[in-house]
Design brief:
Strands 3-2-7-24-25-26 form a six-stranded mixed beta sheet, covered by helices on one side. The protein has 18 helices and 26 strands. Helix 2 packs across helix 7, helix 9 packs across helix 10 and helix 10 runs parallel beside helix 11. By secondary structure, it is an alpha/beta fold. It has three domains: about 100 residues, Roll (Urease, subunit C, domain 1); about 290 residues, TIM Barrel (Alpha-Beta Barrel), CATH 3.20.20.140; about 120 residues, Diaminopimelate Epimerase, Chain A, domain 1 (Roll), CATH 3.10.310. About 30% of the residues lie in helices and about 25% in strands. The model has no long low-confidence stretch (mean pLDDT about 95).
Length: about 525
């Protein structure tokens, strides 16, 4: 059994409980063919075998980001203005003014990434703020979470926004003191604006996807799940895969109810290949915790507002059942406890009739009873530990102490026996590096160093599993990826050092090599 590639003298953390540690690996025809000691694996060496000395450094399965908007990550690197990190509305206005000067024309201007909690004014911008930038071109500004958007007067005019217009269920068109729309749109109402923005072309999408892949590979991410994919993007993914142009393995989740719509899109065709799988559909039950649009049973702190519930059980169940009856798994965004309750009630009905893969995306504020039900029904949790770091300030502003310290409760999730998968949800956050997410799960500190829910910290090994085999399980492809095992795809990474039992908050840890199917696609 000759090998094309042998890497030896490594600290191989396989994530396979039957063989957790090894010194060397052998790869042939894009799969692992042997894992073991240096002596065992080097016996497979032949004349044409590539042999690499790992010099004692750690080798891991490739990281799997189980929830990342791939094309949107690339969009911020190519076509959109990135305003993540701006410290005031004035700074944001300056950036947009410069962007318009550099990109003259009459078309739409789009930007994404502001977070009012990090801005001097401590408020959402409005159409009046955007009109100071331009009233001649339509301007649309997306909050970092993408659950709130702000439009200027020109964009609202083009979109036909009036005080009397119909607002889709599960959305808001917010009004100013004069009772007229103030440019702020939430949840399903975002479609009232976005449906009027010219669609990207397949060529545009391909540029975005390539830009995102470059970043993912540099972080050691070999598989990624793109949730909420519209039909045109889905077609682009299929064409790129058929042309052999995808470098990262993609799970694409078609959206069933798009923003601005109140009816389900038709079910797509299933698709399965080495680099693209389409077997799960996506729903949104509520909004974002950092934007106070997650649907809550109790109001947000210092408020009577309880967020936005985008799905009712009566609407959700029939279209979820239709998907399950056709063999599709179901992934549903649910952060607030009210939304989680709705999703769990529907999932319970689905599970009584079907064994399809079921996931809850984010799972911000589950109760212990919810976790017990998830374990009993085999429902995966796909969450984002990096939120604690980048959005923790928002959580502290909007949640009372009791809810703050039990949000994103990873220790409780694992103790309940629920499969935990990690992801970034980028570009909701700026840092999609799994190392950042791992540290955030271990230390649970926001950007200022404040600890959120210290009782919910998890170990390095728990976090590694959530970014590898746990994520593969949630993606329903753990037979192919997620651990270093004979017969699985040879997706793996080398780190810059040997991992110990833990890592410090400031430890300089990074990926030096990323292999997909045994091919080196990134090297530092």
């Amino acid at each position: 059994m000759p090998a094309q590639l042998i890497i030896y003298n490594g600290d191989v953390l396989t994530q396979n409980s039957k063989q957790p540690f090894a010194e060397a690996i052998a790869v042939d025809s894009d799969k692992f063919i042997a894992i073991g000691s240096n002596e065992e694996i080097l016996r497979l060496k032949e004349t044409n075998t590539t042999v690499i000395d790992a010099n004692g450094k750690t080798i891991l399965p490739g990281f799997i980001d189980a929830h990342i908007h791939i094309w949107k990550v690339g969009n911020l690197k190519t076509f959109l203005l990135d305003v993540r990190g701006v410290g005031s509305i004035e700074e944001m206005q300056d950036k947009l003014t410069d962007f318009i000067k550099q990109n003259p024309g009459i078309g739409w201007v789009q930007a994404r990434g502001f977070n009012e909690a990090n801005m001097k004014e401590q408020r959402l911008p409005t159409k009046e703020d955007l009109d100071k930038i331009t009233t001649e071109r339509p301007l649309y500004l997306i909050r970092t979470c993408a659950h709130i958007g702000v439009a200027n007067s020109k964009a609202m005019e083009i979109s036909g926004i009036t005080p009397q217009m119909h607002v889709p269920t599960g959305g808001e068109v917010r009004a100013g003191d004069d009772g007229k729309p103030n440019g702020i749109f939430t949840e399903t109402a975002l479609g009232l604006i976005t449906n009027n923005i010219p669609a990207y072309s397949a060529k545009d999408y391909a540029i975005m996807i390539k830009a995102a892949e470059d970043e993912l590979l540099s972080y050691g991410i070999t598989s990624a799940t793109d949730p909420a994919v519209m039909p045109d993007l889905l077609d682009c993914y299929c064409k790129l895969e058929q042309q052999g142009k995808l470098r990262v393995r993609v799970n694409a989740f078609p959206i069933r109810v798009p923003d601005g719509g109140e009816e389900a899109l038709p079910l797509p065709s299933m698709y399965s290949s080495n680099y693209l799988n389409i077997n799960t559909v996506k729903f949104f039950a509520d909004g974002g915790l950092s934007s106070q649009t997650s649907a809550m049973n109790l109001p947000y702190k210092n408020s009577d507002y309880r967020g936005v519930l985008r799905l009712t059980e009566e609407f959700f169940y029939p279209i979820a059942k239709q998907a399950a009856d056709n063999g599709f798994g179901i992934a549903t965004h649910a952060i607030g406890d009210r939304a989680i309750d709705v999703v769990m009630n529907v999932y319970e009905k689905i599970r009584s009739q079907s064994n399809v893969n079921l996931r809850i995306e984010h799972l911000g504020l589950p109760s212990q009873r919810i976790l017990e039900r998830m374990q009993a029904l085999n429902i995966h949790c796909v969450s984002q530990s990096v939120f604690l770091k980048e959005l923790g300030k928002n959580f502290a502003l909007y949640l009372d102490e009791e809810r703050l310290h039990r949000c994103y409760p990873y220790r409780s999730i694992l103790n309940a026996g629920v499969n935990l998968a990690f992801s970034s949800d980028a570009p909701v956050v700026k840092d999609s590096n799994p190392v950042t997410g791992i540290k955030a799960a271990m230390y649970r500190k926001d950007a200022a160093g404040n600890v959120i829910g210290p009782q919910e910290t998890i170990s390095l090994q728990d976090a590694l599993r959530a970014y590898t085999l746990g994520a593969a399980s949630a993606n329903n492809n753990a037979n192919d990826v997620g651990s270093i095992e004979v017969g699985k795809k040879a997706d793996f990474i080398l780190l810059n050092k040997t991992l110990q039992n833990t890592i410090t908050e400031n430890e300089d840890l990074y990926v030096t090599s990323t292999y997909v199917g045994g091919k080196l696609l990134y090297s530092r």
